[in-house]
# Entry
Amino acid sequence: MQSYIPLFALIAGLLLMGGLAYFRASLLAFSLVLTGLLVAYSFVSPFSQLFWLAYLLIIGGLNFKALRQQLISKPLFKIFKKIMPEMSRTEKEAIDAGTTWWEGELFRGAPDWKKLHSYPAPRLSPEEQAFLDGPVEQVCAMTRDWEITHELADLPEEIWDFLKQHKFFAMIIKKQYGGLEFSAYAQSCVLQKLAGVSAVLSSTVGVPNSLGPGELLQHYGTKQQQDHYLPRLAEGKEIPCFALTSPEAGSDAGSIPDAGVVCMGEWQGEQVLGMRITWNKRYITLAPVATILGLAFKLSDPDGLLGEQKELGITCALIPTDIEGVEVGRRHFPLNVPFMNGPTRATDLFVPIDFIIGGKEMAGQGWRMLVECLSVGRGITLPSSATGGIKNAALATGAYARIRRQFKLPIGKMEGIEEPLARLAGNAYLMGAASDLTVSAIDLGEKPSVISAIVKYHLTHRGQRASIDAMDIVGGKGICLGPKNFLARAYQGAPIAITVEGANILTRSMIIYGQGAIRCHPYVLNEMAAAQDPDFNRGLDSFDKALFSHLGFAFSNFVRSFWFGITGNNFVSAPYSDQTAVYYKQLTRFSSNLALLSDVAMGTLGGNLKRKERVSARLGDMLSQLYLASAVLKRYDDEGRKTEDLPLVHWSMQDALFQLQTALDELLLNFPNKLVGKFMHWVLFPLGKPLHAPSDQLDHTLARILQQPSETRDRLGQGRFDSRVAGNVYGELEQTLEDVLACEALYDRVCQALGEKRPFTQLDKLAEQGLHLGVLSPEEAQLMKRTEQGRLAAINVDDFDHQQLENRPAQPQGSHSSWDSVA
Ligand SMILES: Cc1cc2nc3c(=O)[nH]c(=O)nc-3n(C[C@H](O)[C@H](O)[C@H](O)COP(=O)(O)OP(=O)(O)OC[C@H]3O[C@@H](n4cnc5c(N)ncnc54)[C@H](O)[C@@H]3O)c2cc1C
# Structure
């Protein structure tokens, strides 16, 4: 036994060191404890001299700055300066803009769950609630999406007027200018409700409240510009649009060819300093009806009229569209969701220099202005619209699945249908959670550029997949267009949300992790800043400090990840001990894994990581699923930890965690350095992959939630327009669902009295028979008749005269093929 003492002491010492690494002890604490351990070890082991030697080399070297810098930091600093990827001005401005919030915690490997739960849950003010209950409900009731999308290809005049009159376009404009100055949460609630009813309605309202003239003027406008335009925007006297995209510059918006040259020119009979601008923009939402155009272009000053700089760069100006030479009015036709969208052009248009937003001082500052404001709008408009869309799609499809019968059974009871129904319910819960968490960050004053990219991508992506699920369930009823169709326009329009405000593939491949890695990592930004310091020694000092903190951080994440892997997360703390505890533990594990793999990827790929889009995409997926999953835990807590909502929490968590595990697994299987990939796979999954997708049993429970009215179901669809007013197909479906459920016992009673099981059709005739047989009261018979009407309305589709569908417009301009001229 005596002879084992040194071995036990060694193991105990290693465990203690592992514990210190786990809890991220400082280098000093680490060194002190190690010194103490070695002193103690010297008494029990004859080999302690060897350890003392290693100790003196490593700990001595690490703790003496001059030695450490000479031996380690300086050579690494030189290499780092060489391999650090070149960053364009636009990239640098994108990184500098915005703030980090909860995603920073998730990225750093040890999320503080108490912090997450201490963020206040979003709330509406009485004024915002009144707006939702009043004008928003009213406009939803006025809206007939078929009329908008098929007959008018526009909102009817009375809806345009209503929107302007009730300041729907002024939700972000401050009260001092006559706007509503709503919270991000209120804007999100408004957009969710509108999106469920009509995508044309929600995008028409969403765009002026997102990145555009209103937002830019409030942040950067001169007082004169603010005093002139903001009250007019608030009253709806001006309709704004924002034009960045050009035919040659879509995703690569920084490369716009649209150009302005500073020069003197004539303006209203006088010679003034101005700009001669040429632009050709496309895809511009609201451009066909806009009265002011926010325009992004590249400004140059060859004659030095503004200063010494010749190429000023991207600049934003406000151009009234009634100036002669501004071309607006023509329309694109986005996927049968005909919101106002079209091109705008001008050639050599002269405008005064004070048309620049913020005046001539802001010449060349356009890109910075855009990226600084982008994160707020991107976190609200599309994620909220996607959430509003899925709430309606999920509940309406659930109702339909319970109403529609085939093979003598509601289709929603069939196992095959339960699977997509569960995805609809689970995604609706998760998306609602993520949307709310994101807007609450914005209301806390954050400009969350990484989070807004996460929700933009994942909520529109999940929303699109959900609309496919809904269409598959509803079948022919979803396919045949017409006023009775409650799904198809959302399904058709889903790719629009995927493409705009940063196309999704680009967002996933480059933006989420690309920005996240630099913004959220605790040390990389400092290392990069040190490398750019023109003073070598000062740079080396900062680099040395960041590097050693970084190495300690990476070592800690390594120890934590391995420990979590071999212990199956059993010793991780969680803020609750109920059924959600396991999820906090799993998220903590994956958060450490992400922190570790980020360092491994950056360390092995260096500047190449930027080009390895699939590595970046999968690391981004990990960060994104961590965010979405923590939003679910936050939602459950904010809503009072209602156990009846647990199935939705389980599904959302298990789905997000499984997707996270898949991203991690695929990342390691495809890691550019195979050896590193294999080793990390062993470190992170020493006992194999622990997680599975949600079970069939859980799918079954969620499918039932969608088909049976309950408080849980109401919470899932919270805020959607389901009022039972004439013409609202969603309200009608809800009524019919309740009626069908109430009728089933009556139907059984009549069948029993008839002595045969009849099909659940022609309920009006069964009602008559029930009355005749004396097994139904007149009220019950009446309910059966109403149910039959509702049932038929739910399952029937529209049909049209041939002429009604015929449409022979003139050839659209520019639609001839380039081959025509060749022929
Ligand atoms: C209906 C509609 C409304 C719009 N409204 C406005 C507006 O009001 N104002 C405005 O300025 N713009 C607007 N846009 C433009 C929009 O915001 C997008 O920026 C633009 O559509 C993207 O360009 P693109 O469609 O030409 O795609 P492209 O840039 O040609 O991209 C094609 C594909 O390549 C992918 N891709 C591109 N680069 C990368 C990369 N590095 N890595 C991986 N994948 C990549 C993209 O994700 C996409 O899938 C609108 C667009 C549409 C369709």
Summary: Strands lie at 240-243, 259-267, 270-285, 292-300, 311-320, 341-352, 405-406, 409-410. The longest strand covers residues 270-285. Residues 264 and 270 are 10 Å apart (CA to CA). Residues 241-245, 250-251, 283-285, 334, 341, 496, 499-501, 503, 505-506, 509-510, 613 surround flavin-adenine dinucleotide (CB under 6 Å).
